[in-house]
Design a protein that fits this description.
Blueprint: H1 15-25, E1 53-55, E2 61-65, E3 72-74, E4 87-89, E5 94-96
Parallel strand pairs: 2-4, 3-5
Antiparallel strand pairs: 1-2
Length: 98
């Protein structure tokens, strides 16, 4: 029996995570408020949750609360890809469009 050690394959991001990462990609984030939003992590992970992301008991993203996070850029339609999103709080940022 052989035991192979090496890097574990990365989990594919959920559709909600992909949508949030697309939203992040379109923004200027000078304060680093979205630093925890990484492709190889789960936004609803108990061990490493994404800042400003709220999840339900089933581990699905239901809220984005980033008031006063210093974000700048277009408010694109990427958040529409978060299927169960019920609440978005983005006041106090410099977002345009919508």
């Amino acid at each position: 029996m052989y035991l192979m050690l090496g890097p574990r394959p990365r989990a594919r991001p959920t559709p909600a995570a992909e949508a949030l990462l697309a939203f992040k990609a379109g923004l200027d984030n000078p304060t680093g408020a979205l630093a925890s939003w990484q492709p190889d992590t789960n936004p609803c992970s108990a061990a490493q949750p994404w800042a400003g992301v709220g999840c339900d008991g089933g581990g699905r993203v239901v809220a984005v609360a980033l008031e006063g996070a210093g974000l700048r850029g277009p408010l694109a339609g990427a958040l529409a890809g978060v299927e169960r999103l019920r609440e978005v709080q983005l006041a106090g940022n410099q977002l345009t469009g919508g």
